[in-house]
Please model this.
Amino acid sequence: MSAAASPATGPPRKRNLTLLVHQVRYEQLSFWRNPQSAFFTFIFPVVVIVIFGAVFNSSKREPFYFGLSGLQYYIPTIAALSVLGACYSQLAIGLAFRRQTGILKRIRATPLPAWAYFAGLMANCVLLSVIEVALIIGIGALYGVPLPSHWAAIILTLVLGAASFCALGVAVASLVRNAEAAPAVVQFILFPLIFLSGTYFPIHSTVLNHIADVFPVRPFNQALLGPFAQHTGFDWNHLGVLLSWGVIGALVAIRRFRWDPRPE
Amino acid sequence: MKRYGAVEAVAGVSLTVEQGEIFALLGPNGAGKTTTLEILEGFRARDAGRVEVLGMDPGERSSGRRLREQIGLVLQDIAVEPYLTVRETLSRSAGYYPAPRDVEQLIELVGLGGKQRQKVKDLSGGQQRRLDLALGMVGNPRLLFLDEPTTGFDPSARRGAWQLVRDLRDSGTTILLTTHYMDEAQTLADRVAVINAGRIVAEGTPESLGGRDTARARIRFTLPEGTSADQLPISARLDSDGAVSVELQEPTEALHRLTGWALQRGLTLPGLVVDRPSLEDVYLQLTGTDSSDSEPAAEGGAPRRGRRRLLSRSGL
Ligand SMILES: Nc1ncnc2c1ncn2[C@@H]1O[C@H](COP(=O)(O)OP(=O)(O)O)[C@@H](O)[C@H]1O
Ligand SMILES: [Mg+2]
Model:
């Protein structure tokens, strides 16, 4: 057996932390070993930004991009996309699969407390998001995009966005009945929202933007665009919308989450 | 008692499992075995009745973690993460228990030695099941629940799993398993309860189940050519196909008279057998799968060992 002491022993505070590290470690292993999750949620946004970097490599500021260069616009929106993938899509699909296959039920049969399981999942998602966003910013820098200045606003927005989309991911996993349907449901919700929110190309219709601002994706994009490229700081209005969606997701998740594959 | 909509899945289950024994819940598909087990494991809420597992109520959330530290379980369907290796899967779960088993030893114990670094998805079904079993044991449980643990095993893997379960029992673990295999209940269990349509219809040791030990012996043979039933030295029932059968408490004397009679006449008794009802006969009769016999189920006189009540359940 490994020399490491069991996380289930030791003083409570330390025990909880060790347990969390233990969880994140195995979540990471499962994530990277699964080619589907590693590709779609991790590699895909990186590939997109590499391609966009090659296509929009002029640093010319354009009205189409609200006075930004193309890449200046896409760095934050694709960073947001990567958080959506790492948090929302990954959790919704992964949890639906784990429930259907009885893996969740089996976890529930161990003394691992539910909070530790979810904290491990979220910490794993946040960790993945941080790595991805750092990669995307790094690739942007290689293409000559200046580094952002408002780090505090960026970090708060990313953490809030990651948490909210985790909550929404768990909520969707709680609502879908079978795992085969999960990827379709996840995409069905996400795909129109991504387009409507200007992730892949800026939307100049005020009406559409007002509509999109009610949903969580555009507020997240906007709250990142400000501190990333427009030298504005905290975007409290959009952060507020994001937080509200996070709370809705959390409420649905808490009320509807099931460990058991069969409904009682 | 447990209802799913209009279906009363479990309605009359009352059983006590003694510490350190292997108790088998035997019944056909849909009898309510899994439902019963999952109520005991804390997965399903009962609609009525009283349940006590290791002195705790599995429906009580506050003691849930303490209970789960002391029980282990294997679900009816294999449930293991596909992308972790055998060792990682077990090490992860070991981290959840206060006093886990040694992972390497456990891997050897369930016969997965040499597979430590293999990903779970690359294991065969039987190997995954054994990993699943190891997951049930990794926390060193006092009480282990096994839901149809050997379904789908080949004969040698089954025998291996049985030995493992016996060894566990011998080291002090209490085991409650479900099965629809009669031979499994017969060879493995210290006590058996037969469940049918949500009710316990018999309970006892495999030897005494359904009054098997006190049941009457049966002599059967085919009527020799050229003789008729009224020539026989014993009174017997003659079936239309020429098969003769006699049921008696004590067959020795009747058998002697019968064979003497045959030898005197230079006859043989084709197909002669003397037997008592097998566990299979009792089971089929109790679960009503065999419609030819509708004798009410006899309550097996299980000798109660004077051990501490570990788990009790009544009026469910
Ligand atoms: N989640 C459920 N919803 C509705 N009916 C169920 C559910 N689980 C089991 N049942 C029904 O309850 C009965 C007992 O099922 P189960 O306990 O799984 O039996 P066994 O394990 O002995 O095969 C069956 O009729 C089954 O169809
Ligand atoms: Mg079952």
Summary: Residues 16 and 312 of chain B are 5 Å apart (CA to CA). Residues B 33-34, 76, 147 surround magnesium ion (ligand 2) (CB under 6 Å). The first helix of chain B runs from residue 33 to 41. Residues 290-316 of chain B have pLDDT under 50 and may be disordered.
